[in-house]
Amino acid sequence: MDSQLSFRRLEVFRLVVDERSVTRAAEILMVAQPAVSAQLRALESWVGATLFVRRGNRLVLTEAGERTNEWAKNVLAGAAQVRRDVGDLASGDTGRVLVASSMAVGTYLLAPILATVGKERPKAEITVSISRPEEVVRGVETGEFDFAVLNWDEREFSDATTSEVLSSVQLSVYATTDLVADGATLSLGEALSLPLVGAPREVVYQRNLVAQLRNLGHDEPHFVIRLGHSEAMVRAAVEHDWAIIAPEYAVGAGGPLRPVDVPDFRIEEQIVLVHRRDKHFSPLQEAALGAIRSGLSRMAPPRDHRE
């Protein structure tokens, strides 16, 4: 049995688990496939068990592999925590905080809140990383990020993490006055028949929207186009006199898109905080969390598109 074990070997193993492919892991690491296979063989030798079996063109964890995967997550998360915590001072004026977020939440809500925290603590290092919600959660699980704030649907988080709803935000239908006259009231069916701009089907916001519409007895409406960023969605709706369903913070105030009165429209998104259960927050991280909780409880004022 190989008596040597390195964080690098565990990182390679975790990447193969996530990608379910040695080939894909090698491509991401930009190394030859045999180098990845050698790391896996060495880890199997170290634990004394087979970690993967092949099913079709995918690698699947054995029972021993599942146990090793959970252990590797905790080891790597602990190592990442130690690297970040060293050097933090008890005052919270210095140190680092790494926050992960989904696109709209991170761009429109977290950015101004954490910019204020940074201004108050000029020696602190504050980073907000924007990514897909699934990748954000994975980064929290592995300890890459201190915590995440994002919009989420009804799926369960892993046992390694804990979550807290910070805010429930109402979604509304927005349209230009050329499409829907100012002051007009529409039924939900009429609103869903408007030419709508949506997000790709796999996006959490879109999945959440469709699921809630179905709970109200409505099928997924037709979307004239699906775009991956709220800025692009707003621009398309404005330029082509289309409509969008979105939270106010992502649309802005005073612009050409106005909220449409739809009395039966009761759809919201939840903004949640996610972190590892074993996470110990530094004073700076606690300060950042406090600012986010306070800011989201009031909800930041919408952006002004008249700039």
CATH homologous superfamily assignment of the largest domain: Periplasmic binding protein-like II
Specify the number of helices. 11
Radius of gyration: 23 Å
Q: In CATH terms, what is the fold-level topology of the largest domain?
A: D-Maltodextrin-Binding Protein, domain 2
Mean pLDDT: 89
Terminal residue distance: 65 Å
CATH A-level architecture of the largest domain: 3-Layer(aba) Sandwich
Briefly note the structural class of the backbone: alpha/beta
> Biggest β-sheet: count, sense, barrel?
9 strands, mixed
Helical proportion? 40-55%
Give the class-level CATH name of the largest domain: Alpha Beta
Cα shape: globular
Give, in order, the helices and strands.
HHHEEHEHEHEEHEHEHEHEEH
**Strand tally:** 11
Tell me the quaternary state: single chain
**Total domains, how many?**
3
* Percent of residues in beta strands: 15-25%
Low-confidence blocks of residues: 300-307
Domain HTH lysR-type: 5-62
Keywords: DNA-binding, Transcription, Transcription regulation
GO molecular function: DNA binding; DNA-binding transcription factor activity
Family: Belongs to the LysR transcriptional regulatory family.
